[in-house]
């Protein structure tokens, strides 16, 4: 395994601990999915019928996968670098009676992508901000996307970049190798569109953008490029 992948996996394991996984799954059970998860879920539903396999890259505790399974998807493959989060996802799938329809796979998606199946729907919810190089992550993801692609990412605004700088500085002081990133939205969109996908919807909170793309041959549903007035953005800017 490449050293860069080992460093990423080590950072993810240090950051996304069993304690944080337990808190996140408890919050999901009590309050439902967070803002970006709801936006991606609704954007995919509005783009047409939800069916087939979901490849949920960096799927964490599986919230988006479970939401899409409840709306018509037949199978979910959840890939994540944190074994603690995958354990929570596996437990939740059993609690929901979804074990037969859910697979959890630990590891760095970029390093192991050739071993993974394609997905009718490929999703990355709050994932690109956790990965140092967005180009290989998105290109590998697009190679697996059959019909739709959806992802959320931090908006490129000064206060978000400042927040990332502060968070990364604190992690450096604590010898935590994990880092967060604010990648250029326009460059990321070019990669997605260059793979034959068209923007179907974009919805925003103060800090996040949630984009849904469909194959260019499909008709885009809508484009809502403005921030949703009053939409709650209660989760931390990055999944700390």
Structural description of this entry:
By secondary structure, this protein is an alpha/beta fold. The protein has a single domain, classed as 3-Layer(aba) Sandwich (Rossmann fold). It contains nine helices and seven strands; from the N terminus they run H-H-H-E-H-E-H-E-H-E-H-E-H-H-E-E. Strands 3-2-1-4-5-7-6 form a seven-stranded mixed β-sheet, with helices on both faces. Strand 4, helix 7 and strand 5 (145-154) form a beta-alpha-beta unit. Helix 2 (18-31) runs parallel beside helix 5 and helix 3 packs parallel to helix 4. The protein is globular and about 45 Å long. The chain starts with a helix and ends in a 25-residue tail after the last strand. Mean pLDDT is 88; it is low at 218-240.
């Amino acid at each position: 395994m490449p050293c860069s992948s080992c460093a990423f996996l080590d950072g993810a394991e240090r950051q996304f601990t069993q304690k944080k996984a337990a808190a996140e799954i408890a919050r999901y059970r009590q309050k439902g999915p967070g803002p970006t998860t709801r936006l991606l879920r609704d954007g995919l539903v509005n783009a047409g019928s939800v069916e087939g396999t979901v490849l949920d890259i960096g799927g964490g505790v599986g919230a988006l996968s479970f939401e899409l399974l409840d709306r018509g998807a037949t199978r979910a493959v959840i890939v994540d670098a944190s074994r603690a989060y995958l354990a929570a996802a596996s437990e939740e799938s059993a609690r929901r009676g979804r074990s037969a329809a859910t697979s959890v796979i630990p590891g760095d998606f970029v390093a192991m992508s050739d071993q993974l199946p394609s997905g009718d729907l490929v999703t990355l919810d709050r994932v690109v901000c956790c990965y140092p190089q967005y180009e290989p992550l998105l290109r590998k993801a697009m190679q697996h996307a059959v019909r739709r692609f959806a992802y959320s990412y931090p908006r490129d605004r000064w206060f978000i970049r400042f927040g990332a700088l502060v968070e990364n500085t604190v992690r450096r002081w604590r010898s935590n190798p994990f880092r967060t990133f604010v990648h250029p939205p326009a460059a990321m969109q070019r990669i997605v569109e260059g793979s034959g996908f068209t923007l179907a919807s974009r919805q925003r909170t103060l800090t996040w953008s949630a984009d849904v793309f469909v194959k260019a041959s499909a008709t885009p549903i809508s484009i809502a490029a403005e921030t949703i007035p009053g939409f709650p953005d209660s989760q931390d800017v990055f999944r700390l």
